[in-house]
Specification:
heterodimer, A: 3-stranded antiparallel β-sheet, 18 helices, 11% strand, B: alpha/beta, 5-stranded mixed β-sheet, two-stranded parallel ribbon, 7 strands, 18% helix
C-alpha cells in the first residue's frame, strides 16, 4: 500500500507550486492522455506526459492473425484515415511477396488515401478550432467530412473501420458512380475549405491564440523525430510521398507546403494547404483512372469471386485453401520496412515473415508518437490554457499512439 | 546518395566495428555488435557524409529459440540526403544496451517502449520505466513466451471468467522454468 502511494507523490520544488493532473479524460484533450503538471500560478514549470491508456496489444494480435486478418487491426490505428493504414500494411506485405498490384488498384488506393487525408486534416482542424471556441467552424468541417465518409461508405460499406484493401489489391472494385460522386463533392469541399479559411485564418482571435504557441525549431523537430505537417510547419520539406515514392505519387503534380515558425498557427496552415493539394491529386488521379482489374491475378493470393466459390468446386477449393489455418498467403522469409505518408506523418510498417501464414512480427511506427513525446517540451513554460491548442495541433490519435 | 554507394561507404568506414552491411530490398542493413553501438550511432549522426539526423524507429524482435535471443532494430533517416538505414543489434537475454537518448530526444520514449514490451534494459537512460503498460504490470508482453491470453486485472474479477484453451499454432507458449 505504502509503496503504491509513494509512486503517486509529487515533489513540489517550492511552496507556491501546485501539482495538477490533467486527464486522462479531460474534455479539452480529445484523446486519452494525462499531463502531470507542476504549476506556478498559471504557468507550467514541469510536465510529464503519461500515455498507454488505449493500449490493446496491436503487435501481439497481429502475430496471432493471418496476413489478411491483420488488415482489420490496422483500421483501428488511425481511425479517421484508416485507409492509409490499410494501404501501408498491404504495401509492406506485397513488397515481401514481390507482387505488383494492377494499375487501377494502385490509382484507387491513391485516391482513397488522399480522401482519407482530407478527412483527417479536416477533423484535426475542426477539433483544434472548436477547442479554441469556434463551434460553427467545427460543424462545417463535420458536414464536409460526412461527404467524404459517404464515399468511403460507398467504396467499402463501412465508414470508420474500412478494412478495404487486401494483400494483392482491394476488397472489390468501386461502383460505377464512384467517379461522379467524388467529382461532385470536390467543389463543395473546396467551398467549405474556403469558408473555413475566411473564418479562421485571418481572424484576430485565432491568430493571437495560435501564433508563437508551442513553437519548435527545425533542429528540435528533427531531434524529436517529427514527421508530417508538424515537421513541415518548422520548414523542413520532408514528405514520404515525394522522398520515398510509393503507389504512383511520382506521376502527380502536387506541392509540399512548408511553414516558417513551427507553431500551432503554422501547423493549422499546413493542414489547410495540404487539403487543397490532396484534392488536386484526387482530380489528377480521377482523370487518369484506368479500367481493368484491381487485384493481382494469382490464385495463391487473391480470393476467388463469390459466384465461382458457390458455383464451382475449383472456386470453393481455392477459397478454402486461402482461408484455412496453415494455408493461405505465405510470404517468403524476410523483413521489410515500408513507410507511407499518413495524415500525421510517416507511418511505417516493419514486418518480419518466417515463411508462415502469420506475421512473425509487425511493428507499426506511429506518426503521432514523437509529437506526443515532445508535448512536455512544448508546454513547459507556457500557460495552462496553451495546452489545449498545442495538443489539438499535434493531432494525437489514441489508436495509433498506444496501439 | 545512391543506396549501393551508401552500403560501400558504410562497410568501408566501419570495417572493424560491424558484423555485416548488406542491401535488403531497398534498405541498407547494418548489423553490429552491441559493444560498438554507441560509437557507431555517434558517427552516423555526426559524420556529414551520412548525416542521419532523424531517429525514425526502434523496435525489437524476439527470436525465442535463437542465440542470441533478441534483435534490436533501429531505423535512421537523413532528411538532407534522403537515405535510410536499418541497424540490427543482436542481443542475449538480460544484456544491457547503451541508450542513445542523448543523441536523439525521441529515443527516450522509444527505448522506454522497448523496455516495457520486451524487457531490454538501456544503460544510461534517464527515466527507464513502463510507458504503454501500467506500472504494476508483470512481465513483458511482446516476448514470444508471454501467453497472449494472460490477463492481469488490476481489480479482482467479481465473476471469474471460465478458463478457456486456445490452440496457438507453431508457437511454444509456456516454457517450464521461465516465468517472466
Amino acid at each position: 500500500m505504502s509503496e503504491k502511494n509513494s509512486k503517486r507523490e509529487v515533489f513540489l520544488p517550492a511552496a507556491n507550486h501546485m501539482a495538477l493532473a490533467m486527464g486522462p479524460s479531460h474534455p479539452a484533450t480529445h484523446g486519452i492522455v494525462r499531463f502531470n503538471l507542476i504549476l506556478e500560478g498559471e504557468r507550467i514549470i514541469e510536465s510529464t506526459t503519461d500515455i498507454g491508456y488505449l493500449h490493446r496489444g496491436f503487435e501481439k494480435m497481429v502475430e496471432r492473425s493471418t496476413w489478411n486478418q491483420a488488415i482489420i487491426y490496422t483500421d483501428r490505428l488511425n481511425y479517421v484515415s484508416s485507409m492509409i493504414n490499410n494501404v501501408g500494411y498491404c504495401l509492406a506485405v506485397e513488397k515481401l511477396l514481390d507482387i505488383e498490384v494492377p494499375t487501377r488498384g494502385v490509382y484507387l488506393r491513391t485516391i482513397m488515401s488522399e480522401l482519407s487525408r482530407v478527412a483527417d486534416h479536416m477533423t484535426c482542424v475542426a477539433a483544434q478550432v472548436m477547442e479554441a471556441g469556434a463551434m460553427s467552424a467545427f460543424l462545417y468541417c463535420m458536414k464536409a467530412r460526412e461527404w467524404l465518409w459517404e464515399i468511403v461508405e460507398m467504396v467499402c460499406g463501412a465508414r470508420v473501420t474500412t478494412n478495404w484493401t487486401r494483400i494483392g489489391g482491394l476488397m472489390a472494385d468501386v461502383t460505377p458512380d464512384f467517379n461522379d460522386a467524388i467529382r461532385e463533392r470536390i467543389p463543395r469541399l473546396r467551398e467549405v475549405i474556403d469558408e473555413l479559411d475566411k473564418l479562421i485564418t485571418k481572424n484576430r482571435i485565432f491568430y493571437d491564440r495560435f501564433r508563437d504557441v508551442g513553437s519548435m525549431t527545425k533542429e528540435e523537430a528533427i531531434d524529436y523525430g517529427f514527421t508530417g505537417p508538424c515537421l513541415r510547419a518548422t520548414g523542413v520539406p520532408f514528405d514520404v510521398r515525394r522522398d520515398t515514392p510509393y503507389l504512383n505519387y511520382d506521376e502527380f503534380d502536387f506541392e509540399i507546403p512548408i511553414g516558417t515558425q513551427g507553431d500551432v498557427y503554422d501547423r493549422y496552415l499546413m493542414r489547410m494547404f495540404e487539403m487543397e493539394q490532396s484534392l488536386r491529386i484526387i482530380e489528377q488521379a480521377l482523370d487518369k483512372l484506368p479500367e481493368g482489374p484491381v487485384c493481382v491475378d494469382d490464385k495463391n493470393i487473391t480470393l476467388p469471386d463469390k459466384p465461382s466459390v458457390y458455383g464451382s468446386i475449383e472456386g470453393l477449393m481455392n477459397q478454402f485453401k486461402l482461408i484455412m489455418d496453415d494455408h493461405g498467403i505465405k510470404p517468403p522469409p524476410g523483413e521489410i520496412y515500408q513507410a507511407v505518408e499518413g495524415a500525421n506523418g510517416e507511418l511505417g510498417f516493419y514486418i518480419i515473415s518466417t515463411g508462415g501464414d502469420m506475421p512473425y512480427k509487425c511493428r507499426c511506427r506511429p506518426p503521432c508518437f514523437p509529437m506526443t513525446a515532445a508535448m512536455d517540451k512544448m508546454i513547459t513554460g507556457q500557460l495552462i490554457s496553451d495546452i489545449v491548442p498545442i495538443f489539438g495541433s499535434i493531432n494525437m490519435i489514441g489508436g495509433e499512439l498506444d496501439r | 546518395m545512391e543506396i549501393q554507394q551508401l552500403q560501400e561507404n558504410l562497410s568501408e568506414h566501419f570495417t572493424d566495428k560491424i558484423i555485416s552491411c548488406i542491401i535488403d530490398k531497398d534498405h541498407v542493413v547494418l548489423t553490429a555488435n552491441v559493444d560498438n553501438l554507441y560509437a557507431i550511432f555517434l558517427e552516423l549522426k555526426s559524420e556529414l557524409k551520412y548525416n542521419f539526423q532523424m531517429f525514425m524507429d526502434l523496435t525489437a524482435v524476439d527470436w525465442l529459440d535463437r542465440q542470441p535471443r533478441f534483435d534490436l532494430v533501429y531505423h535512421l533517416y537523413s532528411v538532407e540526403l534522403n537515405h535510410r538505414l536499418r541497424i540490427k543489434i543482436p542481443l542475449i537475454e538480460g544484456q544491457a544496451v547503451s541508450s542513445v537518448s542523448g543523441l536523439w530526444s525521441i529515443a527516450d520514449w522509444m527505448e522506454r517502449e522497448i523496455w516495457d514490451l520486451y524487457g531490454i534494459k538501456f544503460s544510461g537512460h534517464p527515466n527507464l520505466k513502463r510507458i504503454l503498460m501500467y506500472d504494476e504490470f508483470k512481465g513483458h508482453p511482446l516476448r514470444k513466451d508471454f501467453a497472449y491470453d494472460q490477463r492481469q486485472p488490476l481489480i479482482q474479477d467479481a465473476w471469474p471468467s471460465r478458463p478457456f484453451q486456445v490452440n496457438v499454432k507453431g508457437l511454444k507458449i509456456h516454457r517450464p522454468g521461465n516465468d517472466v
